[in-house]
């Protein structure tokens, strides 16, 4: 069997399997280009089960690109709260405003134009172009990479530029004119449900007959995985500053990690520094006020993609000074019952839950 016939066989097997086994997902029941775009952004680095409820709520809150463009960033972040990777929400909001202003409210149709929008890289551009517009564009995400590395028995590190180029070329050869969107979804579906990272279900795989890794017994060893790095750990102390029944919160700077989210003021402990001293120092530097630490309220463990953090929350009394956003984007006093109205990162939400608010 030559290479052309091999890819034709892979293509045919994928289409037959996907026609029988495709999951019934809400974004597959619509031809609304806006809704498809939202789903592809949400699905970046996030599992389908986690995305589904957010997708439904987000579309109810922002049913079209004009509603999203009109919205305040705070509202968009609140709708995204808990889904993680918040730069996606910020980029989505920026892109919506660009689409309304520069494209008359219509998402660009070509991969080249899509790539100009914030938050859209090569994979997402290919997914939108093929699924929403029927363009003959391939995709290459983690699921597709895993399938291709196994089927083609690619033993080089898929993160390397040369291997990436080979994988993109293979993805291009699999798609067919007019069927790219379906084939791309089939590849992603196969990686998500059958060709999974651990213990792949090879007995149920439509490509088992074409899989070189299965033939050589290497399916669980591919793709090559980098050695796991020890994640750094940070100790952070924050203050629940109260004044006459109000609680002080501040907003993170827009361009940094968790940009635009609200949190309790505080920061990283310096070497050898008592946690209470960290709270006093950080709040003074961040907001220009003096506080007195009263008691420990909660300790929360939380993990991000590249580090872990232990959050220590302390009850604090406002002593003097008017809060000013010296190291943050904004600050405000709010009632405890109103904390739920603001978009907080998961770690801060855990503190709020521990407070019983």
Q: By CATH's scheme, which homologous superfamily of the largest domain applies? A: Hypothetical protein, domain 2
Task: Indicate the low-confidence ranges by residue numbers.
Answer: none
Name of the CATH architecture of the largest domain? Orthogonal Bundle
> What top-tier CATH class of the largest domain fits best?
Mainly Alpha
Task: Please estimate the helix content.
Answer: 40-55%
Mean pLDDT: 95
What is the third-level CATH name, the topology of the largest domain? Endonuclease III, domain 1
Choose one word for the global shape: elongated
Terminus-to-terminus distance: 66 Å
CA radius of gyration: 24 Å
How many beta-strand segments? 7
User: Quick one: biggest sheet?
Assistant: 7 strands, mixed
- Give the number of domains: 2
In what range is the share of β-strand residues?
15-25%
- Total of helices: 14
Q: Sketch the topology as an H/E string, one letter per element.
A: HHHHHHHHHHHHEEEEHEEEH
> Helices and strands: which structural class?
alpha+beta
Describe this protein's structure.
The chain is an alpha+beta fold and 357 residues long. It has two domains: 3-221, Hypothetical protein, domain 2 (Endonuclease III, domain 1); 233-355, Nucleoside Triphosphate Pyrophosphohydrolase, CATH 3.90.79.10. It is built from 14 helices and seven strands. It has helices at residues 3-21, 33-42, 48-61, 65-70, 73-80, 87-102, 111-114, 122-133, 142-151, 161-174, 180-193, 212-216, 275-287, 346-355; strands at residues 233-243, 246-251, 262-263, 266-268, 290-303, 308-320, 330-335. Strands 1, 2, 3, 4, 5, 6 and 7 form a seven-stranded mixed beta sheet that branches. α2 crosses α3 (48-61) and α2 packs antiparallel against α8. The longest helix has 19 residues, at 3-21. It is elongated and about 80 Å long. The termini are far apart.
């Amino acid at each position: 069997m030559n290479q052309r016939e091999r890819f034709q066989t892979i293509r045919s097997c994928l289409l037959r399997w996907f026609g029988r086994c495709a999951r019934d997902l809400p974004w597959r029941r619509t031809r609304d280009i806006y809704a498809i775009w939202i789903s592809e952004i949400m699905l970046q680095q996030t599992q389908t089960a986690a995305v589904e409820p957010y997708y439904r709520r987000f579309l109810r809150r922002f049913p079209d690109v004009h509603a999203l463009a009109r919205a305040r960033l705070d509202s968009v972040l609140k709708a995204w709260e808990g889904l993680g990777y918040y730069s996606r929400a910020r980029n989505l909001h920026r892109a919506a405003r660009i689409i309304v202003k520069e494209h008359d409210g219509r998402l660009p149709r070509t991969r080249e134009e899509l790539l100009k929008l914030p938050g859209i890289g090569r994979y997402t551009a290919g997914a939108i172009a093929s699924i929403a517009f029927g363009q003959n564009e391939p995709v290459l995400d983690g699921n597709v990479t895993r399938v291709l590395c196994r089927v083609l028995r690619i033993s080089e590190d898929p993160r390397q530029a040369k291997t990436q180029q080979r994988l993109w070329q293979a993805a291009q050869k699999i798609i067919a004119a007019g069927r790219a969107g379906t084939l791309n979804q089939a590849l992603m579906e196969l990686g998500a449900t059958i060709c999974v990272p651990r213990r792949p279900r090879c007995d149920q795989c439509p490509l088992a007959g074409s899989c070189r890794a299965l033939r050589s017994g290497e399916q669980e060893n591919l793709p090559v995985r980098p050695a796991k790095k020890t994640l750094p750990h940070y100790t952070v102390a924050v203050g629940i500053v109260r004044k006459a029944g109000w609680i002080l919160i501040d907003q993170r700077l827009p361009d940094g990690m968790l940009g635009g989210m609200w949190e309790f003021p505080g920061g990283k402990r310096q070497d050898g520094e008592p946690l209470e001293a960290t709270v006093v120092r950080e709040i003074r530097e961040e907001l220009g006020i003096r506080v007195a630490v009263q008691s420990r309220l909660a300790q929360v463990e939380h993990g991000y993609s590249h580090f872990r953090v232990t959050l220590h929350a302390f009850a604090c009394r406002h002593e003097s000074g008017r809060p000013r956003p010296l190291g943050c984007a904004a600050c405000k006093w709010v009632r405890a019952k109103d904390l739920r109205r603001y978009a907080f990162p998961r770690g801060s939400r855990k503190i709020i839950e521990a407070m019983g608010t």
